[in-house]
Amino acid sequence: MDLVPAPSSSSLRPDGCFALDEPFTPAAAASAGIGRSALERLVRSGEVERLVRGVYVAAGTPLTTHARARALALVLGRRQVVVDRTAAWVHGAQALRLRPGGTGATRGTLPGPIPLDVASRRRRIAEALPLGRGDLTVVGGVRCTSAVRTALDVGRFLAPERALPLLDGMLRAGSLTHLELVDASDRAETAYGSVQLREMVAMADARAAGTAESVLRLHWYDASLPTPVPGLVVTGSRLALGLGLHRFGVALSGQLGEPDLAACAAVGWRVLVLDRCRVLRSDPLHVTAHLEREFHQHLLSQVG
Question: Do 82 and 135 contact (CB within 8 A), yes or no?
Fold first, then answer.
């Protein structure tokens, strides 16, 4: 286990070390001489991040499935069952974090904690769909819905822009396969949200690299455009979405540099670069209209 020196701003333990690369609570930090104010300074500086409310870890620490479960075990009771967004995170999906808090200059600058969805707080776990054999599992000492059951629940209960990234993430992590997802969705054929679930299952794709790519694909499907290939590689550059036949693709900000874009253009590709925040936060109608306009302009340029 790596040890990180206590923050220099803290005089409580000037010569001590504290393990930040394992999930910990403020009480554990305090016992090592890192008080609440010092911990908050570490968060503001980006050295430490909040995982869930009351649990912290060093920023950039690789979080395995069991590490995520151990973090939850610090704040959950034995009889609680992790469900929905939190269960998807345990099974490998990228976290759908809560909106940042803070006041004044810090508002919106720090990532919020991961939502804590447990059956005893939000709803009955068997709501509208009976529990079957294998629907519950234990990971790192924490009870949670299985990957398949979690996929069924998020696909039915969450808005599409939240459900699809979680389904993509669990597929990408290998927690379940698309075939398992399709087979399991038959169980929910008459349950609440089954229509949306079938749509989400049909769209789910492990090739999406993160939340923004999943949401972008959702907007693309809402546009009048041909079906894209997620993660298409052109001249060595990976696009978020691409149409090989039409040589049109989309990348997200930070994915490609100017040399990459020039190399794509040299072989006849038009690559639209969209800002991640715009994809996630803008009116979806604006994003779909922009995609349609750029695609049709590209087609006209090819004809001309």
Answer: no
